[in-house]
Amino acid sequence: MTVRRKPLNRDPAATSLYDGGFAGTASRTEVLNSDMNSRFPTAVIFVTAATWAGFAIWLALYPNALLSGFGIESSTAAMRTEIRAFYGGVEMAIAVAMIVLWRRGLPAAALLVGSLPLIGAASGRCIGMLIDGFSAMHAGFAAVEITGAAVCLLASRKSP
């Protein structure tokens, strides 16, 4: 597995990264900042992908959990299948796409794949609340989705 990193400003002939900052070598701070900048996007990719996958598995196994959350007490097989298809299948596909893109050395693309559905969901919730009236539950979900998208987009700016 290869992770692309931004090259440090150092002399290729240098034998130590921590030699006190002599000309042409990376200082300890540069090395630590480089490591942090490459780890943050990766951590966000894995946390976001795990969240998408977790919801996918949960709702594929327990589709009625979503329905009861919206006050729907009785469901049909078609309703449960639709929840399994969209919330199970599509959300798992997002998680898999993020990991595949990361493995191919495309962390910014992985973070974009993770953030765009969050932006879309939050936008849809906000539009729904404008049209149908305020819902504390939807406002809370939108806040979480906007936060997740913002973290993904911030991490994409720091990705190598």
Characteristics:
single chain; 160 residues; mainly alpha; 5 helices; globular; transmembrane helix
Blueprint of the fold:
Elements: H1 28-61, H2 64-69, H3 77-103, H4 107-132, H5 136-158
Describe the overall structure.
The protein is 72% helix and 0% strand. It is mainly alpha-helical. The longest helix has 34 residues, at 28-61. It is globular and about 60 Å long.
Strand coverage percent: under 5%
Contiguous uncertain segments of 5+ residues:
8-22
Largest sheet, strands/sense/barrel:
none
- Our count of domains comes out at 1
Oligomer category: single chain
Radius of gyration: 21 Å
Summed up, the helix count is 5
Number of strands: 0
Protein name: DUF4345 domain-containing protein
Organism: Roseimaritima ulvae
Keywords: Membrane, Transmembrane, Transmembrane helix
Short recap of the structure:
The chain is mainly alpha-helical and 160 residues long. The protein is built from 5 helices and no strands.
